[in-house]
Amino acid sequence: MLTAFEDSAQRYRRQVYSFARYLLSNREEAEDVTQEVLLRLWRHRSGVDEERLGPWLLRVTRNACYDLLRKRRSDNAVRAPGDGFDAEMQHAASAEPDPQARAEAADFRRRLLAALADLEEPYKSVVILREVQGLPHREIGEALGVPEVTVRVHLHRGRRKLRERLREVSR
Amino acid sequence: MMNRSDHDLSCEEALGILEPYLDGELPAAEATRLRGHLERCAACAAELELAGKIQRELRSLPQLDCPPEVLERVRGSGRGEVVPFPSRRFRTGIRIAAAAAALALAVGGGALFLHIQQASDRPSPEEVAQATRQARLALAYVGKVTRRAGLDVRDDVLVKRLVAPATESVSRSLDGRRSEKEF
Amino acid sequence: MRKPTILTAVLLFLVVSSGLAQGLEDQPGYLPLEKLDLFPRDKLSVEVNLEGAILRMVAEATRGDDPEFASVMAGLKAIYVRVFPLSGADAGAVKTKIDRAVRMLEDRGWHSTVKVREGGEETYIYLKEADGKIAGLTLLSLEPGDEAVAINIVGRIDPAQLGRLGRHFDIPQLEKVPAHGKKPE
Fold first, then answer.
1. What is Dmax (Cα atoms) for chain B?
2. What does each C-alpha distance from B183 to C116, C124, C125, C160 come to in angstroms?
């Protein structure tokens, strides 16, 4: 049913796109992945179990991103660091009244995004889904096909790696 | 300056439970021990502060809005199984589905309506060409299968073996009786 | 007079396009090929899904050099094709699924016009009528060692014309349509 597809597409496209965007750090690629994922949703519209739709979409998104990342590596594509993180993200809800503090906050965000972009899998997916998208551990486990305890382990390791990276830079 | 007692954590131990502590998943007793260590250890306290800062920052990152063109392209593509990658044809502006273009033609809705279409997501000539190839391919398969089933020899044979029985079976079923023909 | 025309057209668009978009499943001649679960999706050699407006565009585009093909397209609402290569695959399993699909077609009131079983090959052609006219065609075919084919065509159909036209088109000369569209570049 088209209506069901439309409902699902509207409900999930933000989550799919955000996930792809943070995973790839590239706006155009994220758009292409989102298009591909929604198209697959359309094609499989009569076959997907409604309850599992969210995790299914995330898994398909992650796999589509992996394909792109593999291709990037094999193409030795040169990618400008953090080229997907432009004004819309830098425009942080920085409540800092002090311009100096605001500048520092913006700088920290930029470095964090760069560190996130460089974070390897499987930690990166888990950090994005948990910290950025706020999904519960169980749902992340369903999406990525791993037990909840593994999700927690990956989350902790991912955050630790981010800390290591940011700690070095802030010295 | 740390006086290690049985209750005190080492830095290594403290760092090991920092993450669960941050997530509020640490049992109360361990959390207390960790807090005790952090009061005495500036380095670990700094780690916690950094970890907290990272978490707050990550959680404040925005959910990003998917450009509406992406969904429009899927709607258009889903209709015709033509998927241009990457497609950058679609610009903001008036967007009316291709169905409307056909409708405009059908009702003679006017050059003005069609003109509104120009800026929108009408399939490209390449997409129409691809759809044409696909349609021909579909018919080619119909042809291949009917040929293989021995239905192709002459049109009159086809009519006799396919259309007439079909019409007959249709009209019989309208009379309340189903019928089948086997060849 | 312009304003009313646009308004009418827009209103009609809202009514008709939603009808077009959502109405396919309600068309008597429509058959949800996915529900037949005949072939594994990722192993298809050909997948075609053409619906609604794109078919009218095809008709428009070919009216000049192939008027008969164009007029056939103009009357169609949807074309679906799935082709599954059988070399190295278990034709028996596919045959079971096709048999099940045939039963489903009959349960849904489709009329069999062709049943050919010969030397392991099977071909079924079913038609669906509505208001005394043919509104849909479903073709299922299995040739062990070659391929299995499922086709559903929805709309105003003249089966003889379809078959005749089809035999003018040669499959080997046409590009094979890859299943699933393309991966993002």
1. 104
2. 6, 11, 12, 16
The dihedral of CA C167, C171, C173, C175: what is its sign?
A: positive
- Substitution target in A46, A48, A74 with the highest count of C β-carbons within 10 Å is A46
pLDDT of residue B102: 39
Q: Give the domains, in start order, of chain C with CATH numbers.
A: 80-175 (3.30.310)
Please report the pLDDT score of residue A129 as a whole number. Answer: 96
Q: Which residues contact B92 (CB under 8 A, 6 or more apart)?
A: B69
DSSP C90-127: -HHHHHHHHHHHHHHHHHTT-EEEEEEEETTEEEEEEE
Query: Please, are residues B54 and A166 in contact by the beta-carbon 8 Å criterion?
Result: yes
Give the single-character DSSP code of B82: -
How far apart, in Å, do the first and last CA atoms of chain A sit? 57
Q: How far is C32 from chain A (nearest CA, A)?
A: 9
- DSSP SS3 for C140: strand
Q: If contacts are CB pairs under 8 Å, which of residues 126-165 in chain C contact chain A? A: none
CB C21 within 8 A of CB A2: yes
Which one of A2, A6, A23, A66 would you mutate to disrupt binding with C, by most C Cβ within 10 Å of its Cβ? A2
Pick C78 or B4 by higher pLDDT: C78
- 8 Å CB contact between A99 and A88: no
**For range B48-74, the mean pLDDT:** 88
Distances (CA, A) of C178 to B57, B87, B161, C78, C184: 44, 18, 34, 19, 14
Phi then psi for residue C44, to 5 deg, are: -65, 145
> C36 CA to chain A: closest CA distance, Å?
11
Contacts of B150 in chain C (CB under 8 A): 116
Q: Find chain A residues with C-beta within 8 A of B57's C-beta.
A: 108-109, 112
- Work out the minimum CA distance from A94 to partner chain C, whole angstroms: 35
Kindly write down the DSSP assignment for every residue of B87-112, as one continuous string.
Answer: -----SS----HHHHHHHHHTT--HH
How open is the CA angle B78-B82-B84, to the nearest 5 degrees? Answer: 110
Chains that touch B (3 or more CB pairs under 8 A): A, C
**Mean pLDDT of the region B93-97:** 31
Number of CB pairs < 8 Å for A and B?
95
pLDDT class of A86 with cuts at 50, 70, 90: low
Answer whether A33 sits within 8 Å of C34, measured CB to CB: no
Residue whose tokens read 């089948």: B180
- Asked whether C152 and B108 are in contact (CB, 8 A), the reply is no
The contacts of residue C15 (CB under 8 Å, 6+ apart) are none
In this complex, the residue of A15, A93, A163 whose CB is nearest that of residue B51 is A163
